Amino acid sequence: MTSNQPAGRAGFIVGLFLLLAQPAQADRYALRPYLVIDEPVFEVEFKPGAAFEHYFTLRNEGKVPLLIKEVLTGCGCSAVAYDKSIPPGGRGGVRFTIDVYPEWSGRELRRAIWLMTNDPEAGQVSLVVRGRVAEAAQ
What gap in Å lies between CA 99 and CA 131, rounded to an integer? Predict the structure, then answer.
């Protein structure tokens, strides 16, 4: 029975080491920004001849600041304003403005923007506004 004790102690020490090493491994992955977008696609009926504006709310559920490095638009009819940094546990967003031209009346419209972030799992994310442009009043 005494011959099993050293092996038993070694096994216990190895097991204890592995158990204590796991949280350190998990923390290493938790030390990053974590982008959450509750509504990445927004549906609306557009008014022809009027600017449309929507605010996309972004949350950072990570442990370090979320950086919005760049926001790209898909056409000259749209513009953006955005928070460049969102602290851990904080909220920020992107204001997306679209000029809806009268000649688009009665058509389906889809406009997207692309966010470039420092979240390793969401380095490039698209946000979309889509819907039908109402018929122009005669």
Answer: 14
Q: How large is the greatest C-alpha to C-alpha distance in the chain, in angstroms?
A: 98
CATH class of 35-133: mainly beta
pTM: 0.77
Condensed to tens digits (0 to 9), the pLDDT of residues 84-104 reads 999 999 999 999 999 999 999
Pairing of strands 41-46, 35-37: unpaired
Beta-strand runs (E) in 14-121: 35-37, 41-46, 51-60, 66-73, 78-82, 85-86, 91-99, 108-117
What is the rounded CA–CA span in Å between residue 70 and residue 77? 18
Which residue ranges make up each domain of the chain?
Answer: 1-30, 35-133
